[in-house]
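ok so for the tutorial part 2 we go from a plain amino acid sequence to predicted structure tokens. step 1 is just haveing the sequence, like this:
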Amino acid sequence: MERIKVRYSDEKGRAREEVFETRSIKEMRKAFQDQGYYIISEEKEQLGLAERFQKILNIGSKASIKELNEFTKLLRTLIKSGMPINDALEVLLDGAVETPLNLALRQVKEDIGEGVSLSSALARHPDVFPDIYVKTIVAGEKAGALENILKRLTEYFVSSMAIRRKIIAALIYPSILLLVSSLAVSYMVVAVVPEFAGLFKSLDVPLPLMTSVLLSTSEFLGEWFYLIVFALILAGFGIYSYSKSPEGKRAIDNLKLSIPVVRDLETNYAYSQFSRTLGTMVEGGIPLLDSLEVVLGSIENKVLAARFAILPELLEKGLGFGKSLKKIQGAPRVMVKVIHVGEESGNLSEMLDNLADHYDEEITETTDAITALIEPVLFLGMALVVGTLVVALLYPVLTAASNIN
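step 2 — the prediction. this is what the tokens look like for a chain of 405 residues:
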């Protein structure tokens, strides 16, 4: 992402200056053109060291789904009561903490006060309000059904949060168990094993290979402990930074699709995202081609997103949605069938929601299976490792005792 300071003229001819983050200058220029703005000047901004570090770690730069959902729910309630948008924002921002979302909303309120539409004001903060949010609001404004659109967005956010919680919940316990096990084994190797080294020398018995390897490993780790820890932290930071780059993201997404159980979770989550997001936008009255542009960008696994990227081209050639899906590599039959039925019946948004519910159920079943399976597997692995350590340490002692006898 590049950071660009732009001086531009808005739709009313007023000069403004703001800093935007964008994937490319070309993309930014197109966005300005679509909004009816004229760029006067543009200048790249260099980030400071602290800002770069914050950007790499993605700290405090975006609004969470939970924050967006709470804001949307409250805004809908106030609009439903008959309050104008600007007054509703005034109420929501009164005494609010200075979060990225609230800072953006203060600017949105000012823009609306100057005559800018809600969707245009939101679009000026792409880091806070995702494309699906802005484009769905556009549809609500055009249809004069903003309250209904906001309700639809809250339902979308609630469903998205629920499925994410299921995936995270399935991974938290095994992650903690694996971490504790690793720390316990590391402590034994670094702190406990060296205590036996002097004992083994005094026994003057031949050591089995397993014990020799354990003593050598313990000695190496004890001597280079801090360097190894530093190297691991550095490697972890490097991998994290690489995972944030387009190439790294693609490599990690490919890796996820090559691991059996993870592949099922990843594909079902991507299909759920695709169906839920598209259903929300189609229900909002946004044309299918425009909706697909947003939906493809919202799929987190970029390898799967690339497979669906030919859909707009196929639709522009006149193929139906269901027939276009058949040409997608790996597109599940149930998705093709359900979307074809929805297309033929004129009830596409409802069928997409049903499809998303189906994949959410698949995710629930997979996460339940992972939770049930991972606990005994980790306990068994931990028992094998600890058992191996104990045998490696006690075997020479028992051998010496039998020789004495």
